[in-house]
């Protein structure tokens, strides 16, 4: 029975490939790659001669069917992406699903992935984490709001020219004090992993301490608050009897660890209640 191999490749440092990945890429009938020219260079580096097929977001549907036909006729296929583990913010989902439904064995060949490399060195909690990949700008604040009470580490990917914008949205939703780790250019010459508050990280990006170039993983510490909305409302109610809204909100944010903007909305409701 032929097999579909999901093969992880390096995320920068070419030494980060497993022996099993090299053996698999050498032995399969076809290598399906996101960008054949890019992956050809990688294969040449390891002296692998392989028949290649382009497989990307725009032809995923047709090529999945062609690949499954090849697999059903007895040929084996390895799927690779430009970097790291295929399917992780990369195409491949359709072919894996179709292969599974067609009774073909899908074999992972594990290796590098930027999200796990970043998490392992982030110093943030690893017992629970949420990987959200790239969050589209349009719905970003709404999506981030859903993560306000998430206790696990939130892992995001972002392009360099959009990273400051992402950090601004994070600051707005989670407040300036939430810890965030920026992992840049992992496994490469200018690798940088820096942990600080959201506010300080924005300064770091703006003053060049963290150059806004290369590849970025942004990891946000999970919420550590044990306060629920009712308790926050009680605290706000008490503070609002003595203080103006902004002071009450600032103090409540320090006391509860809940984000200021959420507390601010609640404070306005409490203040304006009949
Ligand atoms: N499949 C890949 C993986 O397993 O990590 C991710 C592919 S996704 C299209 C590319 C994004 O992953 C980049 O924009 C960046 O956010 C992140 N990334 C990839 N390589 C990286 C590296 N060496 N250092 C930091 N982030 C990286």
Secondary structure layout plus pairing:
Blueprint: E1 3-7, H1 19-27, E2 30-33, H2 36-45, E3 52-54, H3 60-72, E4 77-80, H4 93-101, E5 105-109, H5 114-120, E6 129-133, H6 140-145, E7 153-158, H7 163-174, E8 179-184, E9 192-197, H8 198-206, E10 216-220, H9 229-240, H10 245-256, H11 260-272
Parallel strand pairs: 1-4, 1-5, 2-3, 2-4, 6-7
Antiparallel strand pairs: 7-10, 8-9, 8-10
Structure characterization notes:
A 5-stranded parallel beta sheet has the order 3-2-4-1-5, with helices on both faces. It has a 5-stranded mixed beta sheet with strand order 6-7-10-8-9. α7 runs antiparallel to α8 (198-206), α9 crosses α10 (245-256) and α10 (245-256) crosses α11 (260-272). With 274 residues, it is an alpha/beta fold. It starts with a strand and ends with a helix. It has 3 domains: 3-111, Tetrapyrrole methylase, N-terminal domain (Cobalt-precorrin-4 Transmethylase, domain 1), CATH 3.40.1010; 115-220, Methyltransferase, Cobalt-precorrin-4 Transmethylase, Domain 2 (2-Layer Sandwich), CATH 3.30.950; 229-272. The chain has 11 helices and 10 strands. β6, α6 (140-145) and β7 form a beta-alpha-beta unit. The radius of gyration is 23 Å and the shape is elongated. Residues 11-12, 81, 83-85, 88-90, 113-115, 157-159, 183-188, 215-217 line the site of S-adenosylmethionine.
